Amino acid sequence: MAPDPRDGSFSMFEGSMMGGYFSPKLDESFTKAGLKNVTVHRLEVPVGKRIADESLRQLSIEPFKLTIPAVTGAAKAVRLGIPDHILNGLGERSERDMVEAGATFGILVVCGQKPIS
Predict the structure, then answer these.
(1) If DSSP states are collapsed to H, E and C, what string results for 59-98?
(2) pLDDT tens column, 7-43
(3) Which of 6, 26, 90, 98 has its CA at a distance of 20 to 30 angstroms from the CA of residue 53?
(4) Is 99 helix (H, G, I), strand (E, B) or coil?
(5) What three-state secondary structure class fits 29?
(6) Contact, 30 vs 114, CB < 8 A?
(7) Per-domain residue ranges for the chain?
(8) What is d(CA 38, CA 31) in angstroms, rounded to the nearest whole number?
(9) Which residues pair with 107 in a beta bridge?
């Protein structure tokens, strides 16, 4: 599924010159860089309430408490046109959602082998 250009994360990547459609091209990029046997794996990692163990549940939320404010600050700094009502309080809203409903965080893992000369 292609990213929605109205999505804030799409705008962030476009603004960073990385391009909003970079993820479907990861395997191609690694191959062009000279790696062999390139594979892309998508992991769906549960966060917050979707984790049964309370201590692990809390640990799963901690990274977002750091990254969301950094991302929203960057979005404001580069003036991507994302409305303030979306960015303001995003960290608190996200934490509340993770605690109350849980979430799933998608991660792309790209693997490749450097050719032996």
Answers:
(1) HHHHHHHHHHHHHHHHHHHCCCCCCHHHHCCHHHHHHHHH
(2) 555 555 555 545 555 677 788 888 999 999 999 999 9
(3) 90
(4) helix
(5) helix
(6) no
(7) 8-113
(8) 7
(9) 43
